[in-house]
């Protein structure tokens, strides 16, 4: 499996992560820019926001894959030498970890459930990286803030550390400024 450029971009809410990642992907030499979106419209505000993002991306030439869970299902839609942006890990993690909420059976509470999703995520990221000429992954840096859900914090920290270790570049956004960490 040939590994190509992977950039991990993290930062606080509204720090400029997505805009910076979009700029990097636009600069990649590829025929097609693919945007993998993890958001889910759980309320009217989010539905309006997702609709606005869809419209903006379409006008800017992005091909969007809406994949809130099971990132591996996006693999067949990604072509060789695409430039790919996945936004974002934190939303995907919440979607996966709390899967089953409606039925009272959370993945977070099911032994081995998240471990299985973690193995699948790593394989999927490696597979996208092998296909894409450039791959940017965005995530919120929320570990500095106290959270009530320690399971979420633990998984996010584990995923962030792995992404930073295998990425060619790790960038932290702060106030619209890109701080290169790796």
Features:
182 residues; alpha/beta; seven-stranded mixed beta sheet; 7 strands; 40% helix; 21% strand
Summarize the SSE layout with pairings:
Blueprint: E1 5-11, H1 17-27, E2 33-37, H2 44-59, E3 62-66, E4 83-87, H3 89-97, H4 113-131, E5 134-140, H5 150-166, E6 169-174, E7 177-180
Parallel strand pairs: 1-5, 1-6, 2-3, 2-4, 4-5
Antiparallel strand pairs: 6-7
Summary of the model, kept short:
The protein is α/β, with parallel strands linked by helices and 182 residues long. 40% of the residues lie in helices and 21% in strands. The protein contains five helices and seven strands.
Care to describe what's here?
It is built from five helices and seven strands, in the order βαβαββααβαββ. The chain is globular and about 45 Å long. 40% of the residues lie in helices and 21% in strands. The model has no long low-confidence stretch (mean pLDDT 90). It has helices at 17-27, 44-59, 89-97, 113-131, 150-166; strands spanning 5-11, 33-37, 62-66, 83-87, 134-140, 169-174, 177-180. It is an alpha/beta fold. α3 crosses α5. The protein has a seven-stranded mixed beta sheet, with helices on both faces. The longest helix has 19 residues, at 113-131.
